[in-house]
Amino acid sequence: YQEGKFHFAIAGLSGSGKSSLVNAFRGVLNETANAAAIGITETTTVVGRYPDPNPDKPCVWYDIPGAGTLTIKDWDYFNKQGLYIFDAIIVLFDNRFTATDIAILRNCERWKIPAFIVRSKSDQQIENLKKSSADRIEEDESLDEDERASRLETVLDVAIEKYKSQTRQNVKSNLKDDGLADQDVYLVSYKALLNVIRGKSTRGVLYLDEANLLAKVVEASKERRCPPAWSPRAEVSRSGVLEKAKNDLLNGIQPVVQPTEEEYTRTLKAYQYQEGKFHLAITGLSGSGKSSLINAFRGVLNETANAAAIDTTETTTVVGRYPDPNPDKPCVWYDIPGAGTLTIKDWDYFNKQGLYIFDAIIILFDNRFTATDIAILRNCGRWKIPTFIVRSKSDQQIENLKKSLADRIEEDESLDEDEQASQLETVLDVAIEEYKLQTRQSVKKNLKDAGLEDQDVYLVSYKALLNVVR
User: Fold this and answer.
1) Are residues 219 and 264 part of one domain?
2) Strands 278-284, 331-335: parallel, antiparallel or unpaired by DSSP?
3) CA distance 64 to 193
4) How far apart are CA 162 and CA 285, in angstroms?
5) What is the distance between the alpha carbons of residues 224 and 181, in angstroms, rounded to a whole number?
6) One cellular component GO annotation, for this chain's record (predicted)?
């Protein structure tokens, strides 16, 4: 910490895009010299310190290890990462606003630290909404050609407004539920913020709140320039039992709870379990794409009749039951509420959702393999339930890697025109192989660290699976 400089932390769940945002704020391309490391596995394991390369900007950015991983617990994230020393904190989220974000915001309020809620990867989220709407319009047989063309012309604007409205309503509701004051939400993407910082304009890049964010952060930090006075907290007495429980939780040891026979029977009835059918659950962190995957498995377009609800906010709050529309497939799919939200805790997710009654369970993850996934796998092992680890949104992840690689090649002045063209031709193949390798290595390591056997990982995307099923 240096007097005369502003020290900014970017914190949030692993996989939310912290490292990319640090790079964008500093005007540095991902995966170049002096850039914060990015990856499709958890790359940030220690706090990274990144001074701004522009001497006119006395800012130092800190890339904080992601909460919600196997090694970092939500409840002690703020203190463990020393977030109380910063001039301002950006609370970054990608798919959902979670208990981790609330915990950070509450601690920022106690310490009088300016906090900024930032939604990252907004361009990807809007593109997903746009594609979903376009698919629905193109398959709507009630529209004539002119009506279809007219609606397709406005599909991007509609997607942007829907994304803004849903994100802000979701954050507002969560802040209110937890007794926190309402505040602005900044919607950004890496490429747009990078262009704003560099003073560039690139055709095809979607700009949202990027231009305002940095100025607001610096302005709030200047107002708070004096460090907070130390305020001692009252000592909390702990019995031996509570101390042991705390130590167990810190070491990742959770209580093993078995349902009673009555609870088991009640769950079968609640889920309308039918002999002669296969009952398949899709579980995982909120925002990992469970609802879309169920729709794809059933050959149903998102946001059409009988589809599982998808959204940019947490839409699954009760278990959804979706029989396969094809009578030759005696399968019933269950869309399970996402773990890691404000209402569903990781450690009791398996029992609370009655996952012990299913014939097979798909554990779906998007950005990172987390403690939630490990907890589900461990419980499935106890119950002898077949499990399948599935990585969703693979097309988006590969496209991100491809763009990052292409940006680096195009800015590499050591390459001549032919070398550059040659490398750009193979960039998709390189991105695919890197994605496969990093994902499988990450899952293999996490399974080993958790004392679980290695198993296959299936890499999928909604559109491709939908096409295969159809």
Assistant:
1) no
2) parallel
3) 19
4) 23
5) 19
6) membrane
Instruction: Give the Cα separation of 278 and 274 in Å (integer).
Output: 8
Report d(CA 138, CA 21) in Å as an integer.
35
Domain count, the chain: 2
Question: What's the Cα-to-Cα distance from 201 to each of 7, 191, 197, 224, rounded to whole Å?
Answer: 28, 10, 10, 33
Residue 59 lies in a domain: yes
Boundary-marking domain end, from 172, 204, 223: 223
Per-residue model confidence as pLDDT tens digits over 182-219: 999 999 999 999 998 888 877 778 889 898 888 888 78
Residue 304 CB partners (closer than 8 Å, separation 6+): 136, 139
User: Which tens digit of pLDDT belongs to each residue from 2-14?
Assistant: 878 889 999 877 7
* Residue type for position 101: D
Structural domain harbouring 218: 6-223
Q: Which of the residue ranges 241-255, 280-294, 450-464 has the most confident prediction, judged by mean pLDDT?
A: 450-464
Residues 188 and 308 reside in one and the same domain:
no
CA–CA separation, 9 and 86 (whole Å): 7
3-state secondary structure of 207: coil
Q: Within this chain, do residues 215 and 277 fall inside the same structural domain, yes or no? A: no
What the block records as the tokens of 350 is 């398996």
| Count of residues making up the chain | 470
Q: Could you tell me the CATH number of the domain that includes residue 25?
A: 3.40.50.300
User: Which two three-digit tokens encode residue 292?
Assistant: 């879309």
Question: Quick one: 391 and 260 in the same domain?
Answer: yes
Listed in sequence order, the DSSP H helices in 71-189 are: 77-80, 99-111, 122-138, 145-153, 155-177
Does 86 share its domain with 152?
Answer: yes
The bridge status of strand 48-51 relative to strand 6-12 is: unpaired
pTM: 0.64
Enumerate residues 6+ apart whose C-beta is below 8 A from 41: 368, 369, 438, 439, 441, 442
Q: CB of 359 within 8 A of CB of 278?
A: yes
**Do residues 47 and 141 share a domain?**
yes
- Provide the b/e sequence for 160-172 (b: ≥16 CB within 10 Å): bebbbebbbebbe
Return the exposure string of 448-469: e unless at least 16 CB atoms fall within 10 Å of the residue's CB, then b. eebeeeeeebebbbbeebbeee
Residue 194 structure tokens: 């990078």
**By the 8 A CB rule, do 293 and 390 touch?**
yes
